[in-house]
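Lab notebook page, bench 4
Experiment: in silico fold of construct C2
Operator: M.H.
Input chain length: 359 residues
Purpose: comparison with the prior construct
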Amino acid sequence: MRKVLFAISLLGMLAACMVAYLSGVTQPPQPPAFNPATNPYPTGIYANGILESDQPTGENINIYPEVSGTVQQIPVAEGEEVKKGTVLLMLDDSVQRATAEQLESQAQAAFTLLQELRAQPRKETLDVAEAQVAAAQAALKTALDSLEKQQAAYELNPKSISKDALDSARNAVATARTNLEVASRQRDLTKAGAWIYDINNQEKQYDALWKSHSSAVALLSKYTLRAPKDAKVLAIHAAVGGYVSAQGAYESYTQGMAPTIVLGSSQFRLNVRCYVDEILVPRLPEPVKMRAQMSIRGTNVKLPLQFVRMQPVVSPKIELSDQRLERVDVRVLPIIFRVAPPKDLKLYPGQLVDVYIGG
């Protein structure tokens, strides 16, 4: 029993010595994943930078539909390069298309009626009017002949024709003469064609209907979103079958409205917007002498920058966080540089970088 206890005690002492030895061994430090940004200039100043599209304003192009509707088709994909005029998204336009077709039919009907008015008098209608005049003339001649015969008989023998019969013959002549005058004027009216006021009124109706059709067609084109310029599709916040409006599309992750489609420049055409603290502004070199270097966070890559322009206004430093309600005391001066990344390096708008500016 004593031997067992002695052996256990000895093993415990050996284990304690081993633990003490291992605890005293110093492990060599792990090499850093990447080297932090360093100042390459003797008197360079540091500035926060953010990558942005190579646009006049630096902002990406946010595409919003001017009409509301259900997404029917999205023929592009995120990361795709598109040309100006490329179809980006199509909304269901069945109702608006039917409205445009209806207005087109109404405009065509109004134009047909206008042509009908301008083509008057119609030959067949004029022939009927001429025939009615000829019939009235024949009726007048018959009435005159009858009156002449009765008048001659009355003059030979007043008792052979009653006074009433003679008066009836005279009335028949007057009626026939009036009918001839009416038929003649009706023929002249037919021959004159459509009234100019009727033509003008129909022209106005046709013009109004055609403009309504043109407006409906113009609105129909709003159901198709096209690229306003050569760009790269950065984000699509809509899906086929989803609903979008002039406020954009509902983004479930942010629980807010987001642009339907976001376009930007190619990843090989990027700018860097730097925000220089106002206390460092006096140390900035002249723009013609300004040099800068960008360090990409998480890598050892350092890229030279080319000065583009300076926005000569100092503003609160809220652009990077987009917190409009935060209380800030730091104000910064924006300076824009252009970067030409290598082809094997992936850079994206919105990425934060470290920038040193020297002279």
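Observations: The longest strand covers residues 45-53. Residues 74 and 176 are 79 Å apart (CA to CA).
Next step: discuss at group meeting.
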